[in-house]
């Protein structure tokens, strides 16, 4: 059932993004920034936590999940280190995901021959 819930929650995020692309004049970049910002806001307000418990990877992998991880890291570091944690918490909270993306992106660039579009 976890896979189904992840699929449904992640799919809802995708449907919302597609509707915004089709029905508004927002660019995809602005929609992505909006999703991350909403993830931060909902994470800070503890509204995103029930979504994560229900959807697991379907809620933590998409862009709102990145914003949620930023907010969660900042809150944890502020509780631990005070005001300095507001600057270091987001970096510590998302360092693993960012590092993984860089490493795997680099590995894919090494394994596959990139070609330009014609």
Automatic annotation (TrEMBL):
It comes from the Bacteria. The keyword Lyase does not apply. InterPro entries: Spore_V_AE, SpoVA. The chain crosses the membrane at residues 6-22, 29-48, 93-112. The keyword Transmembrane applies. Keywords: Membrane, Transmembrane, Transmembrane helix. Coiled coil: none annotated. PANTHER family: STAGE V SPORULATION PROTEIN AC-RELATED, STAGE V SPORULATION PROTEIN AEB. This is Stage V sporulation protein AE.
């Amino acid at each position: 059932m976890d896979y189904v819930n992840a699929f449904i929650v992640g799919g809802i995020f995708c449907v919302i993004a597609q509707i915004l692309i089709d029905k508004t004049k927002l660019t995809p970049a602005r929609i992505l920034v909006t999703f991350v910002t909403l993830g931060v806001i909902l994470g800070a307000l503890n509204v995103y936590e029930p979504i994560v418990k229900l959807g697991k990877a379907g809620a933590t992998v998409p862009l709102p999940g990145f914003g949620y991880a930023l907010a969660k890291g900042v809150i944890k570091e502020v509780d631990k280190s005070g005001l300095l944690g507001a600057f270091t918490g987001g970096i510590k909270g998302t360092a693993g995901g960012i590092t993984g993306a860089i490493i795997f992106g680099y590995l894919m660039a090494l394994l596959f021959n990139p070609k330009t579009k014609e």
